[in-house]
Amino acid sequence: MPHVLAKMSMQLLAKSNVDFLSIASRAQSNYWSNVPMGPPDAILGVAEAFRKDTSPKKVNLGVGAYRDDNNKPYVLPSVRQAEENIFKKCLNHEYAPIGGDPVYCDLIAKLGLGENSLAIKEKRNATVQSISGTGALRLGFEFIGKHYNHAREIWMPSPTWGNHPQICNTLGITHKKYRYYDPNTLKFNLKGCCEDICSMPPGAIILLHACAHNPTGIDPKPEEWQILSEIIKEKRLLPFFDMAYQGFATGSVDNDAFAVRLFEKHGHQIILAQSFAKNMGLYGERVGGLTFVCADQDTAAKMMSQLKIMIRTLYSNPSINGSRIVTEILSSPELKAQWLKDVKEMADRIILMRKKLREGIEKRGSKHKWDHITSQIGMFCYTGLKPEQVLRMTKEFHIYLTKDGRISVAGICSSNVEHVAEAMHKVTAS
C-alpha cells in the first residue's frame, strides 16, 4: 500500500501545478487559525512607541528599570566585582539543584526575614530559587491552586501590578480587590483597606506589597502595618508578600523589610516572593526566590518536597549565573557592604529626582498640590494625571508613561527633569 500511495502522489505532482498544491497544503495545515491576536502589554506598548519617536526631547517614564543620571542602564560596582570574582574561580556549568543552591536559598531567606528570624532558626521555612519575582509569584500562586485547602481566593490591592491578576487568570484562581489607594487624597486608604479586610473570608490569601508599592509608590506607615497585621491575624488570613524592591524604597534593605519581619514576629505563616532584578540590577538574569514560612519543620519539609515536584515539571532546574552573583555578594562582608552602598545611592538618586520634579512644577506657579510626589516612595509615582493629560504629555511633549498616570522616577535625570516638570505643569494648568 505505501508503494501505491507514493506512485499516485508522483503522478498527481506531474500533472498538477506544484506551486498551487504547495499553497493549498499550507492553507490546510494551519492548525492555529482559531488563535486570536492578544492585546498588547501596556508597558511594552509605551516602550515601543518611545522607540519610534524621533524627537530629541523624548523621555521614557514607563519602563520599570533603574537608570543613572545620564539615563543609561546601570551595572552596580558590587555586581561587577562579584562577576570578576566568579570568573576567576573557573566554575563549571553543571545543573543547580531543583530548588536552587542551598547556600543561596539560606542567604536570601535571611535577607528577607532577617538574620534573627525565628522561622529560619527553627527550620520552618521552605525556600527555593525562582525565575525572578514573576516566577516566584507564578510558583506561589500555582502552589496555592494545587495544595491550599482553605478559601482559595487571592485579594489584591487596588491598584496592583498588572501581572498579579493575569497570573491568577492563567491559573484559574479567583482574585478580588481591596481598597488601597485613595484617588482623592493620593494617599493610602487605611480605613477602606481595613473595612475590606474585615469582609474577607477566613483563610483567604491577601497579597501585600512589602515596600515601594507598584504602581502607586505609596506604602503604609510602620504604625499602619501594625494595624494591618493585627486585623489580618484576627481574620485568619494568609499574607502573601511581593517584595520586588527591597532597598529601593528607603535605601535600607532592613527598613524595607519591616512589614515582612513584623508579620513573622507576630506569628503569621507568610509567603514571600523576592526579586533581585531591581536592587542588584540583575534584570536579565531572572533571579529571585519564594519562601513559605510554615507552622513547623515537618510541614516545611513537605512543602519543599512538593515545590521541587512543581519546579521539575516547569523548568527542572534554576539558572546558576544570577544566583552565583547574589551568593557572592551576600556571602562576602566586603561585597555586601559595597552593595548596600550601591542600593542606597540608587534610592537616593530617585529621592532627589522626586524633589527636583516637585520643585520644578511648583516654581512654575502650579495651583495644584504636588506633595504626593515626594511623600510617595520607591521607583514609581502615581502622579494623579488623567488619561487625557497623559495623552497630551506624549503628543505635545514626547514624554511616555502609562495611561493611569504612573511614572518611573528612575527615568528622570538632571538633563530632563525640567522638561518633565514643564510638561506636567502645562497639562494640569487648564
Please, could you describe this protein's structure?
This protein has 430 residues and is α/β, with parallel strands linked by helices. It has 2 domains: 116 residues, Aspartate Aminotransferase, domain 1 (Alpha-Beta Complex), CATH 3.90.1150.10; 237 residues, 3-Layer(aba) Sandwich (Aspartate Aminotransferase, domain 2). 49% of the residues lie in helices and 13% in strands. It contains 18 helices and 13 strands. Strands 2-10-9-8-7-3-4 form a 7-stranded mixed beta sheet, with helices on both faces. A hairpin with a 4-residue loop joins strand 5 and strand 6. Helix 10 packs parallel to helix 12, helix 14 packs across helix 15 and helix 15 crosses helix 18. The longest helix is centred in the C-terminal third of the chain and has 30 residues. The chain is globular, with a radius of gyration of 25 Å. The termini are far apart. The model has no long low-confidence stretch (mean pLDDT 92).
Q: What would the CATH topology of the largest domain be? A: Aspartate Aminotransferase, domain 2
Tell me the structural class: alpha/beta
Q: Regions with pLDDT < 50 over 5+ consecutive residues?
A: none
Using the CA coordinates, give the radius of gyration: 25 Å
Task: Write down how many β-strands occur, each being a DSSP E stretch of 2 or more residues.
Answer: 13
InterPro entries: Aminotransferase_I/II_large, Asp_trans, NHTrfase_class1_PyrdxlP-BS, PyrdxlP-dep_Trfase, PyrdxlP-dep_Trfase_major, PyrdxlP-dep_Trfase_small
Organism: Spodoptera litura (Asian cotton leafworm)
EC number: 2.6.1.1
Pfam families: Aminotran_1_2
